[in-house]
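Lab notebook, bench 4. Still working through the backlog of constructs that have no structural model yet. Next entry is a single chain of 316 residues. Request: give me the structure tokens for it.
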Amino acid sequence: MERTLRLSSQSGDKVTLKVSSERAVIGRSGDTDIQIEDPSISGSHAELNQTQAGWVLVDLGSSRGTFLNNLRLSEGEEARVHDGDALRLGERRLTVSLSGPAFEEAPLPPREESEVPQITRDEFLTRGSLLLRLGDEDTMVRELSWQDFHAQYAPILRGFARKAGCPADRIDDIVQEVMTAFFKASEQFEYDPGKGRFRGYLKTATIRALQSQRHKSRGAVQWEPERFLEQPEEVDDAWDTEWMEQLLERAIRHVMATTNLSSSSWDAFELYGRRGLSLTDAALQLKMQPEAVKKAKNRVAALVREELDRLRQEEG
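Model written out:
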């Protein structure tokens, strides 16, 4: 069975592009392996390579940028692509889906655990997966874990509920229903990161909460989530988008808290890597040489992507 990567557009022409070769160039030119007729896409925009470790995306010097999960790739920069990732080429937004045999993924080194017997809040946050700490025998660890569980996942539930058309005054009810159900089931819940169980579990719980809240209507606002939920591609895209946005924010916060990168490096990452300013404009605004901006942004992006991969392995 061959490995296949598909790029699906969730708007406009709803096109699905299939890649199964070891190398494929994407662009507007007719000479590319995958042609996308869009004025915001360069002639030879980006390249996908199938390596032993997985699919890798490379920017080919595109004028309007190549973004993977809202992080811009510099020209020649490589980034690993995962199932469910959000890809933007110029103004064209695509969702990645992978099929075929799994790649041999080397586990990332775990975060160092504190050897201090008395656990402070900052130290406890470095003790591995939050999900594995929810049932910790230490009362302090368990209570802080539940607080962080709510802080980390409630924004995903809120964003998904908004995309489902949920009235603003009902969103907190949905979040509370999901959190309460998970708390009640936590003693029997067995987390298996190898199966990606938690991500799917939380999505299913949220969909059930949307459906149950439909029957608790109050006020004049009429809401029919079925119209949204009957479109599986839009549901998956909405969930994956919210999940990745929150995962990215958590990865950035972790790197900021655990490294001594300069403020200029973070500014380069923000302007050139996230906001999408051109390299020239970012360099002018930061009063830095373009190559220095590129190197600084790449250094931060590499650390953020490493943390993203670690979070993926922990939570599925």
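Notes after review: The chain has a mean pLDDT of 83. Residues 232-258 form the longest helix (27 residues). Flag for follow-up if needed.
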